[in-house]
Amino acid sequence: MLKESLPSPARRIAGGTLVASLVLGVAFAAWATQPQDVVQRPDLDVYVKRVSTETPAYPEAAREQRISGNVILVVDVAEDGSVASAEVERSEPAGVFDEAALSAVANWKFEPAMKGGKAVPSRVRVPIAFEIPPKAPEAG
């Protein structure tokens, strides 16, 4: 090995470029496999808070199969704090808890957003978690 000459500058640059490309490719692949975060939408208001909420009914089919999940709703809040409309932004597992979440949020009340001392309509993101309810103790 001592008798061999050093690699040429072009070969060293090519080798360095190859190593850097591999490192960047692995870093990108690792980043791309991360779970998708919820993207903040600029049309949502973050200063509206819930005043009264109704717990969503746990769907019987999901209860029997012991399924839990999450639903993220986008809710339009009217000036009086009532829910004007709601839509499912994302749900996991898809479609299992959507109807229960939409039914419950329709009866919720919010503290309306204020602008210049006046209540204004707003739009908020509402996450709802559905946890597997504990099994009822069996009568014995």
Textual characterization of the structure:
The protein has 140 residues and is α+β, with helices and mostly antiparallel strands. The chain has two domains: 7-36; 49-130, TolA/TonB C-terminal domain. The protein is 27% helix and 29% strand. The protein is built from three helices and seven strands; from the N terminus they run αβαββαββββ. The strands form three sheets. The chain has a three-stranded antiparallel β-sheet with strand order 3-2-7, covered by helices on one side. A two-stranded antiparallel sheet has the order 1-4. A two-stranded antiparallel sheet has the order 5-6. The mean pLDDT is 84.
Can you summarize this structure?
This protein is an alpha+beta fold.
* Residues in helix, %: 25-40%
Cα-atom radius of gyration: 26 Å
The major beta sheet can be summarized as: 3 strands, antiparallel
Q: Which class do the helix and strand fractions yield?
A: alpha+beta
CATH topology name of the largest domain: TolA/TonB C-terminal domain
**Sheet with the most strands: spatial strand order:** 3-2-7
What is the overall pLDDT average? 84
Separation, N- and C-terminal Cα atoms: 83 Å
CATH superfamily of the largest domain, called what?
Answer: TonB
Query: Runs with pLDDT <50, length 5+?
Result: none
Count up the domains.
2
Q: Judging from the principal axes of the Cα atoms, what is the shape?
A: elongated
What is the name of the CATH architecture of the largest domain?
2-Layer Sandwich
Q: What portion of the residues fall into strands of 2 or more residues? A: 25-35%
Number of helix segments? Answer: 3
Tally of strands: 7
The CATH class name of the largest domain reads Alpha Beta
- SSE pattern: HEHEEHEEEE
